[in-house]
Amino acid sequence: MTDQQPRPRLFDPARMRELVGESMPRFAARQWAIEDLDWAALRPENLTENDRSVVRFITFIEDHIPGYLSFFLDAFPVTGQDLPIEEFCFNREYFRFLIAWAHDEERHASALTHYQVTSGMADPDKLMLELGAEGVKKFSLPYEHPVQAFTYTLVQEKATQLFYQRFKQAVTEPVLRDLLTRLARDEARHFAFYSDLVGEYMTRHGLAATVPDLKDVLGTFRMPLADTLNGYWRWSLKVADATAYDHTEAYDALVRLVTGFTGSRGEASVEDLACFVSRIRGIEPAV
How far apart are CA 139 and CA 186, in angstroms? Predict the structure, then answer.
C-alpha cells in the first residue's frame, strides 16, 4: 500500500518499555512445564485419526519458532552501530517480550513433540527429521511497517487461541485436553500484548492513518507456514472440517479493538474495517 503521508515507524521506546513491563507479570503468573501434565493419565486409545492428524499439523506450526524468532530479530535488530539509538532502544525493549514469547512457543513445540512420542504417534528420531525438513524453510512476512507486523501477529495469536479452544471441544483424550488449555492461555496472553501495540499506533496516529495498514494485513493474511509446509492447504482444510474452525473469526478481534478506540460501531473507520472483513469472508476459503 502507499501511505498518503509518512508517519514514524516506531513510537517512544519508553512507552514500549512500559507495555513490555506490563506484560511480564502475566508471563510469570502463567508459567508451566511439560512435567506439570499428568502423563500417567494419557489414554492414546481415545485419539481419533482426526485428533492425530491435527496434533501432527499443529506440531509443525509450533516447531517453526526458530524461523519466527529469526524473522522478528531481523525486522527489529538489536545489533549494528549504524542503528539509530532510539530505534535500538525500541527494539531492545521489544526484545524482552520476544524472548519470553519464544520461550512459550518453544515449550509448545516441545510439549507437542513429547505428546506425539509418548502417545506412540511418532518415533522421536523420525519426527525430528520431519520437523527439521520444514524447519529449515525461511519464514517471512510481506510487510514494511512495524504496525503491519504487529497486526499480523495479533490476528495469528488470536486465531491460534481460538483454534486450540475449538480443538479441545472435539477431543476426549485427557492429557491433550489439558495441553490445549495451556496452549490457548499462552496464545491469549500473546494476543493481549499485540493488542496493546496496535492500540498504541491507533492512539498516536489516529484511525484514519492506521486502518489502511490493518486492512492491508487482513487482505493478505495467511496463517504461518501456509506457503511452505508441504500439503498445507489440503491438510488445513481437513483440520478446519474436523474442528469446525474458521481462522477469519480472529478478524473480529481486530474490529473490536478498533471499535474500542471510537466507542461506537457507527464511525466511518470501524464500519469500513467491518465491511472489509465481510468482503474477505465472501471470497476467502475458511482454512
Answer: 22
CA dihedral 93, 96, 98, 102 (to 10 degrees): 180
Number of separate domains in the chain: 1
CATH of the domain at 48: 1.10.620.20
CA angle 54, 149, 197 (to 5 degrees): 105
Tell me, what's the pLDDT at 118?
Answer: 98
The pTM of the full predicted model, rounded to 2 decimals, is 0.89
C-alpha cell at position 91: 527494539
Residue 8 lies in a domain: no
Domain that holds residue 114: 13-28+43-283
For residue 174, pLDDT over 70 is answered with yes
DSSP state of 137: S
- Provide the pLDDT confidence category of residue 180 given band limits of 50, 70 and 90: very high
Supply 267's cell numbers. 464511525
Could you tell me if 159 and 239 are in contact, meaning their C-beta atoms sit under 8 angstroms apart? no
